[in-house]
Design goal:
The complex is a heterodimer of chains A (431) and B (243).
Chain A: H1 5-17, H2 20-54, E1 56-61, H3 68-80, E2 83-87, H4 91-96, H5 99-102, E3 105-111, H6 115-123, E4 131-139, H7 151-164, E5 170-178, E6 181-183, H8 188-226, H9 229-234, H10 240-281, H11 287-290, H12 296-321, H13 327-335, H14 338-350, H15 358-366, H16 371-381, H17 384-410, H18 413-416, E7 417-418, E8 426-427
Parallel strand pairs in A: 1-2, 1-3, 4-5
Antiparallel strand pairs in A: 3-4, 5-6, 7-8
Chain B: E1 5-14, E2 17-27, E3 32-36, H1 43-50, E4 58-63, E5 66-67, H2 72-76, E6 79-82, H3 94-105, H4 112-123, H5 138-150, E7 156-160, H6 168-185, E8 188-193, H7 196-202, E9 205-210, E10 213-218, H8 220-226, H9 232-239
Parallel strand pairs in B: 3-8, 3-9, 6-7, 7-8
Antiparallel strand pairs in B: 1-2, 1-4, 4-5, 9-10
Helix pairs in contact in B: 3-4, 4-5, 5-6
The chains are: A alpha/beta (431), B alpha/beta (243).
Chain lengths: 431, 243
Amino acid sequence: MLKGFSTILLKELKELMRDPKILIGMIVLPLIMFPVLGLVMGYAVETAQSEALKANLLIVNNDTENSVWTNNFLTYMNYSMNTVVVSGLTPQQVIEQGLLTQNNATMFLLVPEGFGANLTRHAEGDFNVTGSVTMYGVFNAGGGIFSGAGGSSVTYLVETFNRAVAPDMVNAAQSSIVKGQIQEGVDSSTLGSLMMTQAIALPLTIMIMLTYAMQIAATSVAMEKEEKTLETLLTTPVDRFAILMGKVASTIIVAGVAAVTVLIGYNYMLGSITSNISGAVGVNVDLVALGLVPSVGGYALLGVSLFFTLLSALALAVVMSAFSENVRGAQALVGYIYPLIFIPSMALMYLDFNSLPLAVQGIFYAIPYSHPIIASRAVVTGDYLTVILGIIYVAVFTIVIMYVASRLFATEKILTAKLAVGKKWSKKPNE
Amino acid sequence: MGFAVEVTSLTKQFGQITALNGVSFKIQRGEIFGLIGPNGAGKTTTIRTVCTLIKPTSGSISIFGLDAVKQPEKTREILSYLPEESGAYPNLTGWEYLNFMAKLQSAPGTNIQQTVAEAAEICGLGDRLKDKAKTYSKGMKRRLLVARSLMTKPKLAVLDEPASGLDVMQAYHIREIVKRYVKEHGVTVMLSSHNMLEVEFLCNRVAFINKGQVVMEGEPRELKAKYSSENLEEVFAKVVGYA
């Protein structure tokens, strides 16, 4: 064994474990955060399963021949899923008459005229003839990463029917219903899996951007305290609010640049998805027309939401770092805010926000850092009111934090107060 | 003509801790006044209170006739403060730092370029002023900061441990700067120090502070004679009862 290793190891462990910031930041927080995320993800899966179980499959049977094979197929589908059968309707009529909502369904299967006759010919040996059905799945642009996954269950059922009867007897085509518009030939599950990138990328980017920006702001103030340049500044004949505003204004500029950078990257990403979808399904899909890409106004609102959220995070970082004595302490203090950024970001990747219980929605609304993620979904679905209310809430939160910061800078607390873990506010004389 | 600084019955409580317990002293115009005491005696708290950084629990501070407690903004216009072990902005060059501080510290209408040139002359850093402050040695940084605190010719310069942690030559240089500046421009200086040699070399008068109280005040020579001591260190030990 290396001479002195165990003594040094013991000392290092004591130093680290007795630092409450490390204890809380590295041990207690993960112990709380990951179980909370586990609960959220578990809830998301459970909700998706229970909704799938509750949902009906609407079958539009337009095959007027009433053949044995059509009946066999419908019986098979009914055996595996709760089905509701209607007939004599075009896909557009199904949507216009609101039959999906009336029948608690998120998709319908169109069985066309001549379907039974084709199956009969196939069964008699004419294997070139197959029966075709089309699945129309509602694509929920505001859902989490499970959105658009429903269509795959019907495709699976058709495959099992073929396996039981004859290979390739029934061919299932996929189409989507986006915001009440039928998009022929576009698979809703493909659309969903491609849009999953959107569901994950923006929350991840926001999460990284917020934590990074907060670290920069906290370090900036803590460095001033550590180097005692703040003490020097506070004794100059300059308005103390100007000192604070100078710090915040510089972070506003950084925040503005960051928000624009995110939007440019986000727009580029959506552009890539559009071309991918066109390539994948062989049809030209206009995502803008379908409402799956924010409009110019939507982008502007998303930018404002991002900007205010960043501003509030930066202001909070400035306030929190005022209660630390050095850079390390400031970074640790700001770290306590991270769960409020990580949990909404990660949770909203998996969850359809609108399907959450009101109490849970309320908790997410109360966390300022949820709002740009909620906004990113809302601008796609056209729910601009939610975005605007979110911006107002975050702006008010920011004003409150800024007021607290200005009070801190106006008094000696900026130099003497420090936040001690497990204690109340305490003041520390230098000498 | 009144005193440059008049501190009367200053007290400061931090919760249960009494940092200052009736501190009183006076500083003449144009003199270098030293505040001496051990760690935790209340030197920095006194200095921070004089510099309007913290408010006293009770007592009064008059700086060139201004009430520092009630008129902190006005007081800040005539003083300059150098905190103990302070630094400069690491990513600004020496020139940029001096320029930035000159703009904040100077009265309206002041020629900033001239002020910065004055600081450059005081610190003697020459071309190194074009380099970022993070590349400076401790002594160079301190010279830059001392120059910063004197460049605007404040009525009162408050220097907390101006040569703390510096080697003999660097400390000597700093003391020479302070002495010369006071002589040439009539700036009043209040400084704190642990270094009794520094205090003897620089100060016209000193005050010993212990446990939040001024326990003795006078000229170094007078105090040494009074306590039959060879240096201020011995005087301090006798005054507080260590010797």
